[in-house]
Amino acid sequence: MLNLSNLSVKYGSFTAIEDVNVEVGEGEFVVLLGSNGAGKSTIFKAISGLEKPSGGKIIFEGNSIGGLSPERLVKSGIVHCAEGRELFPRMTVHENLIMGAYVHRKKKKEIKQSIKDVYELFPILHEKREDAAGSLSGGQQQMLAIGRALMAKPKLMLLDEPSIGLAPLIVEQMFDVIQQINKDGTTILLAEQNANAALKIANRGYVFENGSIVVQGTSEELFTNDEVRKAYIGA
Ligand code: ATP
Description:
Layout: E1 2-11, E2 14-24, E3 29-33, H1 40-47, E4 55-60, E5 63-64, H2 70-75, E6 78-81, H3 93-100, H4 108-121, H5 123-127, H6 138-150, E7 156-160, H7 168-183, E8 187-192, H8 195-201, E9 204-209, E10 212-218, H9 219-224, H10 226-233
Parallel strand pairs: 3-8, 3-9, 6-7, 7-8
Antiparallel strand pairs: 1-2, 1-4, 4-5, 9-10
Helix pairs in contact: 3-6
Bound molecules: adenosine-5'-triphosphate (ATP).
């Protein structure tokens, strides 16, 4: 479904990622691991059109998409759930969800159904539907960000560190729902520092250091890899 080949991205003269090769098959759940600044967010920005690649190719469903606008990419089925959530804090939960369907100009009936699906996945959002997004807890805001991304009916969902700043129990609940979204048919590419939680649900993963891939494999291979355990699992 998604193929990054020899992808490089620069910020001015600084090379943030270099010669990166990543493959994500349809229906897969793939995780990008790595510490702060390793380049995970930059890869997401390149895939979703927020940064232009300086080299290499991004192929999505057989088409080269490197450098296309974020709006076109959302229309083609790629949605980016960025780190920091980027909600509209003064708008209600419900209004934030409606904004997620904006690019597709869907009919009212379809939007209603999508919102119903999101509320089924996250009952707490239904409870809080008239509350301002900014008044929600960190975990609820993250759920809203994911819910809003689902409103665009993505084929591929890019999730950038959804567990950041959340309590372990909330992380567990969040990852259960992400796994459910994957089972329902959405392909997932997840960036995480929480390797322990991510490798429990992902099929495969890539480990990044300083903008390059240093290890890749199935989740089980990564979970039992000594270097990965030392650096990211703490055992
Ligand atoms: P984090 O979890 O902190 O977001 P990351 O693995 O996602 O880490 P990136 O945000 O992709 O890493 O950053 C990769 C490198 O690019 C870092 O060295 C970072 O300082 C640098 N960088 C990121 N954005 C910019 C920017 N807009 N201008 C210049 N350098 C940047």
